[in-house]
Structure formats: C-alpha cells, structure tokens
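Dissemination and training. As part of the outreach component of the grant, students in the summer workshop were shown how a complex can be specified as a set of sequence lines and then modelled as a single object. The example used during the hands-on session is reproduced here so that future cohorts can follow it. Participants entered these lines:
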Amino acid sequence: MINIKENAELSVLNHSCAHLLAQAVKHLYPEAKFWVGPVIEEGFYYDIDLGDVTLTEEDLPAIEHEMKKLAKDNKRIIREEISKSEALAKFKDDPYKVDLISRMDDDNTIISCYTQGDFTDLCRGPHVESTKLLKNFKLLKVSGAYWKGDKNNHMLQRIYGICFPTVEELEAHLHELEEQKARDHRRLGKDLGIFMTSDLVGKGLPMYLPNGYIIWEELENYIKEKEKRLGYKHVLTPPLGSIELYKTSGHWEHYQENMFPKMEVDGEEFVLRPMNCPHHMMIYGNEIHSYRDLPIRIGEIARDCRYEASGALKGIERARTFCQNDAHLFVTPEQIKSEFENVVNLILEVYRELNIKDYSFELSLRDPEDKVKYYPDDEMWNNAENTLRKVLDEIGITYTEKIGEAAFYGPKLDVQVKPAVGNPYTLSTCQLDFCLPMRFNLNYIASDGTKKTPVVLHRAILGSIDRFIAYYLEETKGLLPLWLSPIAVNVIPVNNNYHLSYATDLFNKLKELNVRVKLDDREEKLGYKMREAVMQKIPYTVIIGNKETESNTISYRKCGTEDTINMKEEDFINQIITEIKTRKI
RNA sequence: GCCGACUUAGCGUAAUAGGUAGCGCAACUGACUUGUAAUCAGUAGGUUGGGGGUUCGAUUCCCUCAGUCGGCACCA
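and obtained this result:
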C-alpha cells in the first residue's frame, strides 16, 4: 500500500486536494469553520466545524461533485506571504485559524497563505499550481475527531480523501483498498473457523474454534520450545489476584483505569489481572536465591484481562482478555546486558523464522512531566533509562526514542510492526524493571553474603498469542505455513468407486505421522471439492485418480498456485514431513 | 468512552413511499460416479438484534438498550 506522506509529489497533490475539499465544503456549508487539513499516509483529511450540521457518508458525493466543478474551473493557486498581524486580520472570522496563528512563534513570523478563486487558506505549502490538477480524487470516509486530539475538547468532523495524478492510479488504489478488506483477520477468522464472538458471552471476549486452537497450540509449542532451550522455566498462575497484590505492585495506583473493577468475595477483594508480573514476583520470592542461581527465567502463556474502551476492540488483535507470551528474567545488574541481548536475539531469530520483515525498534521512556502515570522515583528512572540506552547501544540496534510510552515501572524496548491492515502496533517487548523487585522485597544472596535486589526484565516475544495470530493471518492472507495450518493436506479421490482405497492409504500414512490430513470422500465433483479446498486455504490438495493409481504416484496442487505436480507417494510424504518439521515459510 | 453508519435464515444479500419477507451459498432428501474454483431437482430454515412508543396495522417511522463496522481518543 502506497504511503502518500512519504512521496513528495503525492504529498503536494493530496495537500492541495485538502484545500479543494475545504473550498467545496465552504461553498456548500457557508458556516463551516476550518481547523487543519494535513497529508497522511492514506491520503489527506480536513477537520471542520459545521456547527449543528452532521455529515454522513451520503453527503460526500455532493461535496465531491462541487470539488470536481471547482477543479474544472482551473483556478491558479497563488501563494502570498503576510505578517502575523495581517494574518490575524485576514482570518478574524475563523477562530480556529486565529488559534493557529496566535500560537506561532513570534510577531515577526512571516505567514504564508494560498488562494484559489474565492478561497484562501493558511498554509505552509507547497501546492500544485492549479486546481485543474486535482481531478482524480475520492472522498473516502467521514468521522468525528477531537479538536487538537484531546478527548476533553469538542469534536470536529473529519473528512478523509485521497488524490492521484491519473484516474488509473486512483482506481488501482481503490481496488487495493477493497482487497485489503479480504485479509482483515476478523473476516478470515470467521471464514476459516478460527474464532467467534458472541453477544451473550460479551464483547471483546473472543472464543477460539478448533481450527484456531490448532494455530494457538502450534505457536505456543514453538515459542516454549525455544524458551526451554534458553533455560526458561514455565509456570501456571491464576488469572486473578487479591487487590493487595496489585497495590503492592503499583498497578492499582498506576494502571487502574485499564483494569476491570474489583470484586468482593467473603470480605476479600480481587481483581482480574491486567498483567501477571506480580504473580511471577511471588514465585521468585518463594525461595531463597543465590547469585549463582541467577538469571532465573520464569515464563508463562499467561491469561490477562484488561478493560479496553469499547471503541478500541478489534477481533483478536485487541480484546479484553488475551494470553501473553510472557516471561520475567531475574538478573544481577551485571547480567542485564547479556540477558537483554539474548532477548533481542530471540526476537530477531523468531522474526527471521516467521518471515516478519517490516518492524522497527522503539525505546519507550517515561514522560518526566507526567506525575500520575509513572512510579515516582527520579533516580530509579534515570538509572533504568540510562542503563537501557547503554545496553541497546552496546548491542548495536537502531531505535527511535518515544517519550511517555514507558510502563509505569520502567522503560522498555518495543518492537513495532506495521500490519497489512490498520495501524502499527507493538508485537514484542523487553522491559527493564528496577521497581517491582524492590516493591516485592525480592532479593538474592550476593557473593559477599549480603542480600541484594535483583533486576527484572519483562519480555514478550510473540506479544500476545491472540494478537500474533491476528497479525499472522493478515500477513499471510490466511494462507498459513504448513506447520500452522489447521489442515495441512487434503486428499481427494477423483472417483470413490475406484480411487478411495488408494486415497485412504495415503490419508492413513499421513495421519500416522501426525500430519493434519483430511480425506474429502464426499460424493461431489472434483471441481467442487477443489473450490472448497482453495477457499479453506488448505496448503496441499492431493488428487488421486486413474493416472495416480496406475503409476503408483500422487498429484498435488499447492494452494495459491495453478500447477499440479506429480511425484512418488513416498517423496511427497517426506516433503510434507520436512516442511512441517523445519517450519518452512 | 466520543462522532457517525449499520444489524433481515449458519453465511452473503434483496424488498416494503407502513399492509407480518424473497434470492444465492451452506444444510437436508433424491438422482448423477465425477480429473483441478460451484451437476441437477426437491425439502426445510425468519418473532427482520432486544425492549418500548406512534398506528387499525411496524421489518419499515420515533425512542432506548445491545452488538458490529469506520474514524477519534486510549493501548504501561
């Protein structure tokens, strides 16, 4: 999908189109007041205050029509530079523009405006030279947006659109947008029987169906195998805990708005846990540890429950309960670097094996101004952030720093991915924590016999299993690699009367080898069964007919290809087994 | 949570300027015995998301609740 913002020519075009949109809206709704109309990756938008008028998508064609009319007029777009006071006078009837102007640096600032026909807008530019270049656009959607992005402000109406130099490019783009919908994990999740939701169960509470749970189990086994090899010990802890536990950890104070409310049983108060770190702290504290025992690595596919705003819910990508691929590494200060490096290496290894390429590292730091969100201990924070920066620089990965993105207990390295559909999000994370071990009074006996507080690394590689499945479905368009596919091989006899026993023989052999294989022996035509196999995105479909039974071979077709390949049964079985075992992409 | 739209059979959809709903796929039954994305015929399946109001009559209009979707905000 093209990124408009990163393309200089398209940026100018789209930004100019935003002005054209504003001009058209002004014509149709003379009372309209305008905020800003920037270029974004997906095109452009303009935030507009229309007073009591509410736009719906049905109003967009009329606005488009007016824009087309204006574009046809072929008005020159003229730049003009004026002083701040001139600008304030010029836009005195537009409070939003006055707000923008009055917040500009100093009184000597030169402000640029662009005029096209009867419409002038405050703008840094540049723009195309004439409205006639703005013919191939489409208004895509309309929605509310908080003024200045602050939920305490009123809402403006935002109109989104996109513009291209040629009609062909526009149509190709619109076609691509349509195709994107087909790879949405919610669509695929339904079509492929991966998960379901139910109003009666409650929103944001997805349930995995048999096909989905196969994917889940495979991923769980995959990552746990890796963790075991790296010395992790896995545990199982309850998805809720007493409120005292979360007061001790600080979650109750700093994370409460993302938690389900407390519940009372027999005079005790409990919460559904939003994170399982406190449980793992308790497990560490269950024994006395020597410095010789460290690092101690405690892992769990842990169910957590978070109160997510209803508008934020999205299939299994963002739900109110999910299972984190979580682990806590209890280390000495000297071990921070090597353990951190191990985690980064594990992330890179997994991404390589699963063919995840579009990702970036972010160093999430606290916002020192935010006194509510973060555990208050400046010295601890400075120490943690500097340590983490140093470790990252020593490991030699490139990252961007994000202020105000840290966990309440410490800074972290996040791995952001750009999914095929929608906004970027965090998949993997590794967090440095000096805070919780202290709050839980954890310690180890150092070589000099004194008690010392361990440092904790919180880390998740697949993130949550749920989100990872969503991500992977969208990346692969539902055509999963063999080892993750709910059904790996589909065997179809051409004619049950003649080919069923040969087909059943292959089916049994594969089943014996623990391959997820299906025998489609329904009394249907081959074309019909083939169609279903393709729609179900089964990676391998084997056809058994006269040709195969007579030559003692099999023929298969790989989902997504048109070719049929004929080979010896034994070779095919070996190929399948190898592909599963090596987790071939 | 906020702004807006939407909700009709398992799935995808049609219709009614207010007179209780069609179609396709899937399912079931039968025939066909099949060579790479849909064989034919028949049967069954709906309190038109829940509740309330207006009306002689509501699936349609209004209110409300729930859910879904698109954005915003949030995402430790």
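Chain A has three domains: 4-182, 193-239+274-476, 489-581. Students were then asked to discuss how this feature might be tested experimentally.
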